[in-house]
Each structure stands twice: as C-alpha cells, then as structure tokens.
Amino acid sequence: MEPGTVRIAVDLLGGDDAPAVVVDGALRALGADPDLFLLLVGPPEVADGLVAMLRPADRDRVAVRPVRDAAAMTADPATLARADSTVSAAVAAVCEEAADAVVSAGSTAATVTAAVLGFGRWPGVRRPALVATLPALTGPVALLDVGGSLEARPATLARHAVLGAAYAAVTHGLVRPRVGLLSIGTEPGKGDRARRAADPTLVEQPLPAGAHYVGLVEGYDVATGARADVVVTDGFTGNVLLKGIEGAYAMAGGPPASGGAPRAAALLGVAGTVVVCHGAARDDDVASGIALAAHLHRRRAVPAISAVLAGLNGTSHITDTEVTA
C-alpha cells in the first residue's frame, strides 16, 4: 500500500442500500488502510454508530459532518447539487481543506454537478467524464466515459481521448498509451454519425504523454486490451458496456487474474478528486471506491493529469462547438 495520510469525505446517504452498505464499506476501508482518515457526511446517529463499532484506538480516524438530506437518484441534479445534500457537503469539505477527496455511491448526475460547481472544470472541458479501469487480459484498460455525460458529440469523444490518455499515463504508468474509439467495426466509416466524425478528428488530435490513436476498436478489445490501453466512448454506451462486463465476470466466476472488477470510477475534468461508486454498490464496492480515492490523492493524480494536459500547450483545448457531426 502506498504511504501517506489521506482524508476521504464519504457520502453516507449515497446509494440504493445506504447507509448500511456505506457504513460497512467504510469499516472495511479503515481496517485495510492504517493511514486512512474518514469524514463521514450524513446523519450524526449513523456516523456515531459506525464510530462505536471501531476500536477505541481507531476512533480518532473518523470525523463527522452532520447532514440529513441525500441527493435522490431521480431528482433534478442541478437543484440537489445546490442544496444542503450529503454530496454537496462532501465537496464543500474538500474545498475547505477538511478532506482530500470525495466518494459517493449516490446520484451520478448530482455528484458531477456538485463537483463542477464546487471545484470548477479544467480548461477546455465542458463535460467531465467518468473513467473506469478494467482488468483486461494484457493489462489495465481505461474506459471512458462510463456515465458522466450521455452525449456522443464528436468533440466530446475527442476530449475524452485526451483525458483518458493523460489518466492512463499518470495512474497506470503507461508510456505512449494506445487510444481507441469504440465502434461496431474497425474499418474507417463504421459507426454512427458521431463516431464517423470523431474518427478523422482523432487522427489529427494531439494527445498527451506520447499517446497515439490506433483507430476504431470493438467491444472485445476492451476485454483483451490487445489493441488499446484507453477506449473512448459516450457515457451511455460506456455505462451499458461496463455493467455488461461486470455481469459477465459474475457469471464466469470472477474477473481475470490480472485485476479485480471495476467497482468505482474516477471523475476527470474537475479540479478535485472525486470517485463515484455504483448506486447498487455493496460494502466491498464502497471500500474499493475509498481505496481508489486514496490512491489518486497519494499519487497527486489530479494535479499530475492537469500538468500533463498543460504540456500540450493549449493544442488539446477542443470545445463542443469546434467539431460537429
């Protein structure tokens, strides 16, 4: 485990089975990482119950921020992000330097909106993306977007390629990551309008960290990792693909030996460390999300990725109006 104290703000009310699974996941995370400190954001009686289950020596590793309102999964995300919800309070804690990162299994839309309002976007990023790491046969594959934005505009896909290449270089330690665009075939011209427009754009698009675009890839390339280290798609398709892969892992008795199933995704494009877990997360999923947030903070992933992007000297700043379908 990487050294270094880290403080994670945990949304106690995020998720279908919250707060019970979040409490259990937080306990697992604390037991696995002796340098982990948690700021529990939610009802004080729930947080106090978790603290009571800890050994006396570990209780000073937990602090509480009392908040009683959760961001409902079906409510308007912009309204909830401005309200005194648990996810907004968790983001505020990081802004106030009371925590280093945010973890939530609640509404993805509300979490992304709260992060954008609280942290602000990186230059050139209009829609942040969620990136998940999949344990492909030949090594980790970064898949994005997996639910941050449902749009499939060509410029958004091009921006995802830039973000994904920088993420793979920083978090996976890859030199010259290979970037592919997910489609229904590898021949030029395959796919819908957005994919057909994005493909030639990516051929010309400068990518950070020496990354290079390998062209169109298919679904099985995500599982093998043989053609690409970063696979780019829209949030709708990526989310469906991710859950399909997770279901296949479950039916096959588990993921490949190269790594565990993706249980959480990192939010790219905002100036803060945010990890989103599934709404149906179990306690081990929540613990995995907390561990991912701690890993990203210890590696200083957000400033490192931002620095890699700055190394493009502004050439990567594509906006949604620069490329059309």
The strands making up the biggest β-sheet line up spatially as 3-2-1-4-11-10-5-6-9-7-8
What would CATH call the homologous superfamily of the largest domain? Isopropylmalate Dehydrogenase
State the share of residues found in helices, binned by percent. Answer: 40-55%
Shape: globular
Using only CA atoms, what is the Rg? 19 Å
Largest sheet: 11 strands, mixed
Report the CATH topology name of the largest domain. Isopropylmalate Dehydrogenase
Regions with pLDDT < 50 over 5+ consecutive residues? 315-325
Q: Average pLDDT, to the nearest integer?
A: 84
Q: Find the count of extended strands (DSSP E, 2+ residues).
A: 11
Number of helices: 11
Number of domains: 2
Find the structural class using helix and strand composition: alpha/beta
Q: What's the helix-strand series?
A: EHEHEHHEHEEHEHEHEHEEHH
Beta content: 15-25%
**Spatial separation of the terminal alpha carbons:** 45 Å
Per CATH, which architecture of the largest domain?
Answer: 3-Layer(aba) Sandwich
Supply the CATH class of the largest domain.
Alpha Beta
InterPro entries: FA_synthesis, Phospholipid_synth_PlsX-like
Catalytic activity: a fatty acyl-[ACP] + phosphate = an acyl phosphate + holo-[ACP]
Family: Belongs to the PlsX family.
Organism: Plantactinospora sonchi
What characteristics describe this protein?
11 strands; Isopropylmalate Dehydrogenase; 11 helices; Phosphate acyltransferase; phospholipid biosynthesis; 325 residues; cytoplasm; lipid metabolism; 2 domains; eleven-stranded mixed sheet; 40% helix; alpha/beta; disordered C terminus
